[in-house]
Amino acid sequence: MNKILTKKEAVDFLGLDGTLFENYFRNACEFSCMERTKGDRFYFDKEALQKWLDDYRWRTIELNLADYQLCLDFALAQHFRGYVLSDWGTARQREFGQKMTNWIKGQLAEVAVKKFFKKEFDIDIELDFAIHDQIVPQDIIGVVEKGKKRPPKIGVGIKSSKPKSVYLVLGENEITLNERRSDVYIYCRPDIPDDHILRLTRNEIIRAVKDEPHFPTYKEKIPYFNAIPCEIAGWCEPSELEKVSSIEGQDFDGDRYVKKSGLLHRTRKDWEKLIARL
Predict the structure, then answer these.
(1) Domain regions of the chain by residue span
(2) Cα separation of 183 and 239, whole Å?
(3) Which domain of life is it from (predicted)?
């Protein structure tokens, strides 16, 4: 008989933050509780949670300093060309740190997909890290076979968000405009820390402040740069998205097309089917 866990035991077993567990359980369809009557306590099948955890770990890629530097270079090139990124759904411009984080996060997701495809399926893809004047909807621009590159047979858009984000969310234009739409969307969740630039420049910052009066109070707390995990959450086609004007905790200023992360295609067989189409 499978072991049954209480919710607290399930949170501890998966090693997730309590809020993230609730988000994945209640909103994302990542995993479910055992059948219950309304008002009863939640219980979870340990074996089912272990299967989810094993799958999550299999789909999670570690991104190293070289990967980060590649993405940082892209973000800086975007910044210094005068590109203006407005807040999604608002007119407020993002400040430098937020702009950099979002650009880097998006590129890290692409690198993670490339490494995932190579590691698990031994397929090489080429990404588009060029700086364009117009929006480029397709992120995979080449597939390498027997040492030769060819264009992909389908358009693939790679989207990213924070680990706590339970939905793949696409803007209306990305679906309704033919020139913006992809045939498949891959959703990734890179766990990039908010202080990633501090971590990168740790030594320089220490040199700058080591003689200042408060330095002893925080010198041991300045973090080092560590590998950045990125979950390849899954993929779907545009026809599988749901048209909505809001999701839990967020109202949009127009229509969006969404998919809960737990309902994305993500098994090894699913990925093999996608790769066969590339």
Answers:
(1) 4-31+40-58, 62-277
(2) 9
(3) Bacteria
